[in-house]
Design goal:
Elements (H helix, E strand, L loop, with lengths): L9 E5 L6 H14 L7 E4 L6 H17 L5 H16 L3 E6 L1 H17 L6 E6 L5 H10 L8 E4 L5 H6 L6 H10 L15
Parallel strand pairs: 1-2, 1-3, 3-4, 4-5
Helix pairs in contact: 2-4, 3-4, 4-5
Amino acid sequence: MSVWDIADNSFLATNGIMQDFDEGAATASNLERGANHLGGDLLLNYNPSSDLASDSMEASGDILSFLIGTNHSENARVVGLAVFAAKMEGRTLHVAGFSQGAASTAAGVRLAAAATLGGLSNIDVTLKAGPINNQLARSAFMRAGIDVQGRAHLSGRNSDAVYTILGFNSINPVSWARSIVMAPCLAIDSCSPHVDR
């Protein structure tokens, strides 16, 4: 499917690091449900997993891409092109990402904003548990023309090292300590604070 074929009011979600296709599809569904998205198609911008080292390098590239606008991953380019197409055709689009997918999504929105010179008022954004700073994301989305009060949804848990430390979303030493203590649980769903539900 081409980004030009995405239906109005669709929900395009990018999965997180180290998720297989089924986990990525479940993440997309959880993100859509969490955003209270009604109607339109649910689409997965699947980010295949290689290994922890490769996925971490790709995630780092997505974070830098969001911060300085270069080195966009394939997933960030897909989000950027989808947002660009929606902007050009006047369609509403909801883009979302979990963990690394949040970084890809933020980078893609920045890419589209640069290509369209902003005016992305038809775009909703959800970033969950990402290594992206909420304050920087809100500022970037506001500059892109996105209503950050009603159309930008950024969330994570203060005990999640990815969100709290890598995203620098808290300066509270208790949150940092809790994140460090919980870091060994990141790969264990039953105790991880870094989950998409």
